[in-house]
From TrEMBL:
Superkingdom of the source species: Eukaryota
Keyword Transmembrane helix: yes
Lineage, highest ranks first: Eukaryota, Metazoa, Chordata, Craniata, Vertebrata
Descriptive protein name: Methylsterol monooxygenase 1
Subcellular location: Membrane
Keywords on record: Membrane, Transmembrane, Transmembrane helix
InterPro entries the UniProt entry points to: Fatty_acid_hydroxylase, Sterol_Desaturase_Related
Length: 291
């Protein structure tokens, strides 16, 4: 009886998902994406797609999302949105950051990317177009990955701030008290592996297609570059995400060093009261504006 009841519940849930999926609009980029994906499958092997394709996606998206923040420093009208206006970007800092990024991307992250093909083969992750998940499924799965990554990041990040180990690893990321977008992945190689593990845990749980891997990469890069941008841009669409932390929340972490340990959401900091200093800071800031 219990087994039949469980089967009925799962069947009803499946039908509900199918119904919601059927009434939602199609992805407007569906025809173009289908053509591009078909061309890629016809001309490249799975190994090439998983390895070189993933490297290209990571580097292209990282540079693309960093570009607006890089240009903001040359646009006077954008300076009113800069959070720490007394600490402008400098060429020296940006060049030092870029050199570290090149090392991390190609000496730490690329070897990990080389394992993508073997991961997809071992877990029978499909590449074909017929198995392509709908955009709603991609969004839901990316959100699930973000929840997992954020939880991992909060607790491991907080541990990396412990006084006994901070100077050996996480201190590198805090070289810049006023962050800028390109600095999102500026970190000690050990930190890249430790905090980066949360990114892969989500993949282990939610991955159902090769394209999902790239969608999750894009979402995670967009989020981490945004929170490190140093600019609190009005009407930022990412703020439509429930409990999204944003640039001002994470910028305070770099400025204050203590508190606001989450990467994407605010709930762990709220639950464990590690946003108390931030809340007091924002209250004082609000009081000054009223005066």
């Amino acid at each position: 009886m219990a087994a039949n009841g469980t089967a009925d519940i799962l069947s009803s849930a499946y039908l509900a998902v199918e119904y919601v999926d059927a009434v939602l609009p199609e992805n407007p980029f569906h025809p173009s994406l289908k053509h591009a994906w078909g061309y890629m499958l016809d001309n490249y092997s799975k190994f090439q797609i998983a390895t070189w394709g993933s490297l290209f996606v990571h580097e292209f998206i990282y540079l693309l999302f960093c570009l607006p923040g890089f240009l903001f420093q040359f646009l006077p009208f954008m300076q009113k949105y800069k959070i720490q206006q007394d600490k402008p970007e400098t060429w020296e800092k940006q060049w030092r950051c870029f050199k570290m990024l090149v090392f991390n991307h190609f000496c730490i992250q690329f070897p990990l990317i080389c394992g993508t093909y073997y991961f997809t083969e071992y877990f029978s992750i499909p590449y074909d177009w017929d198995s392509m998940p709908r955009w709603t499924s991609l969004l839901a799965r990316c959100f699930g990955c973000a929840v997992i990554e954020d939880t991992w990041h909060y607790f491991l990040h907080r541990i990396l701030h412990h006084k006994r180990i901070y100077k050996y690893i996480h201190k590198v990321h805090h070289e810049f008290t006023a962050p800028f977008g390109m600095q999102a992945e500026y970190a000690h190689p050990a930190e890249t592996l430790i905090l980066g593990a949360g990114f892969f845990i989500g993949i282990m749980v939610f991955c159902n297609h090769m394209f999902f891997l790239w969608a999750w990469v894009a979402f995670r890069l967009l989020e981490t570059i945004d929170v490190h941008s140093g600019y609190d841009i009005p009407m930022n669409p990412l703020h439509l995400i429930p409990f999204y932390a944003g640039a001002r929340f994470h910028d305070f972490h770099h400025m204050n060093f203590i508190g606001n340990y989450s990467s994407t959401f605010t709930w762990w900091d709220k639950l464990l009261n590690t946003d108390s200093q931030y809340n007091k800071y924002m209250q004082r800031r609000g009081d000054k504006k009223e005066q």
